[in-house]
Backbone:
């Protein structure tokens, strides 16, 4: 297939691996921040192709996985209200909250619908004027421009039964938190490709400069990942810490200015809690005052007790790259994709799901 | 310029549509069609006329059939949504699905039963269309529908129409095909492109608007199987990878036979459109359903002539040897990825797409 098969070419892969093998004196920990990268690495069997001195850590770039227990409980609480139609991306439905999940609420009669784009949620709101339609707005800088656009559309069309529950998060602050962490020694970041299409490479410059960690923005095909690893090793070898773009067919240093404007028109930056990482300052997005009418949390004020995570679940450590899923007590024995205990096993981008499926 | 007296084009359509709708409304399934009374009889008679065969025409409580030899017997229910999709409909699927289940143990499919659960208010015209389609599919596969039943449930009690078919076939002596029979060294042949059915269904659903022309591969495989058995009875396993796709079928075989399986991603034929939709939605074609493809596990020495036999069949022109049974990792399937890596191919977890067949 055009633009896919070319990036899975075996002879080119072998050539890049040879180049990577030349850095055999470097023993390095590299983190792929994005869950989609984790999936590619597993699906294409890249770990087995890489030399042992390159250790890949999976990062927190899976939006479902980093959503806090409290936010999941709030979404479940919203779904229990029979006036509501809850619209969401698929993976959220199965994430276990403290006592329930959206999937279970759906079986109990809640109206929970899986959609592929926030514009569908808006359509559902238009078609069901007697219902309150809430969209669970999770994700990073990849999805936030779309959701910002749908909120603006709702305002323009004066749709007053459409709400979003924003748990949006920002990637660079999370990377900063990981760079500061004493328990980890990350020597290079493979930065998420799609997030970078929006925010550009400049957004990571402070990480490279302040924390002296090389960054490479990688695309999502096998060769992209291999090439990104090679570029990181080259930086480390040459004692450089810069932001380089491997995914230059899609990423611009300044990013997508229009998308950035959309985000800042609708959202403002706030402190939020990440599963596994705790509260990270200025790492989330909430609606600006002029869009308060679309804020599900303000409108319906779902009351939940302090969210309780399963104490045996190691999702938190897995998200920080401190533990591998195989080091979790629950992994594979109790926690499986059919019966997940933590979000990393639910999400198609979750590290535990990747280990389970392809490990 | 249009003459002044002509109606604008958009106007003609709705009027004929309205008439058509009125006529359609008059022809809907009522609860009485399932009462066992007059309407039931009319309905059943109209089906009998279509399927036209002796055991059915007798209208006894059971069809009486003569056999000599080993029997294969199977049943399956069909709830596909939507009932009409590119490349087929629920009727065609219900016949071919059961025909193929029989063919996968090497049986010659002979007789089918068909039983429909119909929702009140379902259009008689559409039902007739489905029955016609079943009739055509049965003829194409060379089987007879010799027993049947219809039930009507209240509105909302079922979604449009569900069909169950059961089938009986004869297994020739010397044929021993089972998922337990895969042996070390066996070659694995796949009869054509994968994922067509699942993607066609997905595309026909509301909410997706991919402009692809992917059609379901819904087709009978008994012809192909009889061609295979003509050149060699030495076939160990046959399987049609329906729900759960090729990945799930291979896993079942690996487990049931207690062998390791290795396949090469590059060798697996996938249509460009199917690949594209999968890439976009994050699906893996290896897990997408098929309704007219088979995998065959055959000893190396017979592999070439069996592949030839499959390729001669028009349903098998894209056939490929995709892998082999190996001595390592018993009970598991490993894929060699096109980029040169390796990964374990697990069974499908959870539901990828509900109601695909």
Residues:
């Amino acid at each position: 297939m055009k633009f896919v098969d070319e990036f899975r070419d075996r002879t080119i892969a072998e050539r890049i691996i040879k180049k990577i093998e030349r850095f055999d004196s470097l023993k390095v920990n590299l983190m792929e921040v994005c869950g989609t990268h984790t999936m590619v690495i597993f699906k294409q069997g890249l770990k087995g192709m890489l030399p042992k001195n390159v250790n890949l850590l999976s990062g927190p770039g899976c939006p479902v996985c980093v959503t806090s227990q409290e936010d999941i409980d709030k979404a479940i609480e919203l779904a229990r209200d029979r006036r509501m139609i809850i619209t969401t991306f698929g993976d959220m439905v199965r994430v276990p909250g403290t006592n329930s999940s959206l999937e279970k609420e759906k079986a109990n009669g809640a109206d929970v619908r899986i959609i592929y784009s926030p514009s569908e949620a808006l359509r559902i709101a238009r078609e069901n004027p007697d219902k309150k339609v809430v969209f669970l707005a999770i994700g990073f800088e990849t999805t936030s421009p779309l959701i910002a656009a749908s909120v603006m559309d709702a305002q323009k069309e004066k749709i007053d039964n459409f709400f979003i529950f924003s748990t949006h998060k920002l990637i660079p602050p999370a990377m900063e938190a990981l760079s500061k962490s004493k328990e980890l020694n990350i020597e290079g970041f493979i930065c998420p490709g799609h997030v970078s299409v929006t925010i550009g490479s400049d957004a990571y410059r402070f990480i490279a400069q302040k924390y002296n960690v090389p960054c490479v923005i990688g695309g999502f095909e096998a060769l992209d990942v291999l090439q990104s690893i090679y570029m990181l090793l080259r930086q480390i070898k040459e004692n450089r810490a810069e932001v380089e773009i491997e995914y230059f067919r899609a990423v611009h240093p300044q990013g997508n200015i229009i998308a950035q404007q959309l985000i800042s028109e609708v959202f403002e930056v706030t402190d939020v809690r990440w599963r596994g990482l705790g509260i990270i300052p200025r790492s989330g997005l909430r609606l600006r005052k002029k869009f308060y009418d679309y804020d599900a949390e303000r409108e319906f004020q779902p009351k939940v007790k302090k969210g309780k995570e399963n104490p045996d679940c190691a999702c938190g450590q897995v998200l920080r790259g401190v533990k591998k899923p195989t080091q979790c007590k629950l992994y594979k024995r109790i926690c499986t994709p059919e019966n997940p205990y933590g979000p990393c096993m639910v999400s198609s981008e979750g590290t535990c799901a990747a280990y389970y499926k392809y490990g | 310029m249009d003459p002044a007296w002509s109606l604008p084009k958009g106007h003609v359509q709705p009027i004929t549509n309205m008439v058509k709708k009125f006529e359609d409304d008059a022809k809907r399934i009522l609860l009485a069609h399932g009462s066992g009374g007059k309407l039931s009889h009319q309905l059943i008679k109209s089906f009998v006329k279509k399927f036209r065969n002796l055991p059915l025409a007798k209208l006894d409580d059971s069809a009486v059939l003569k056999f000599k030899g080993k029997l294969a017997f199977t049943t399956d229910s069909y709830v596909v949504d939507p009932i009409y999709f590119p490349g087929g409909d629920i009727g065609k699927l219900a016949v071919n699905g059961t025909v193929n289940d029989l063919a996968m143990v090497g049986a010659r499919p002979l007789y089918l039963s068909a039983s429909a659960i119909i929702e009140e208010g379902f259009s008689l015209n559409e039902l007739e269309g489905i029955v016609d389609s079943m009739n055509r599919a049965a003829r194409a596969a060379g089987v007879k529908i010799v027993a049947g039943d219809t039930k009507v449930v209240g509105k909302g009690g079922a979604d449009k129409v569900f069909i169950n078919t059961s089938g009986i076939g004869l297994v020739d002596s010397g044929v021993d095909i089972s998922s337990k029979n895969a042996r070390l060294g066996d070659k694995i042949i796949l009869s054509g492109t994968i994922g067509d059915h699942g993607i066609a269904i997905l595309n026909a659903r509301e909410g997706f608007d991919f402009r692809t022309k992917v059609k379901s591969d819904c087709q009978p495989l008994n012809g192909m199987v009889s061609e295979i058995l003509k050149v060699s009875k030495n076939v160990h396993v046959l399987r049609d990878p329906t729900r759960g796709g090729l990945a799930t079928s291979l896993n079942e075989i690996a487990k049931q036979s207690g062998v390791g399986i290795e396949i090469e991603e590059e060798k697996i034929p996938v249509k460009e459109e199917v690949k594209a939709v999968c890439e976009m939605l994050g699906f893996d074609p290896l897990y997408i359903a098929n309704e007219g493809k088979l995998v065959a596990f055959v000893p190396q020495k017979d592999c070439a002539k069996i592949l030839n036999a499959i390729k001669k069949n028009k349903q098998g022109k894209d056939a490929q040897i995709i892998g082999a049974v190996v001595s390592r990792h018993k009970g598991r399937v490993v894929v060699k990825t096109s980029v040169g890596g390796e990964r374990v191919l697990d069974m499908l977890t959870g539901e990828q797409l509900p109601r695909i067949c």
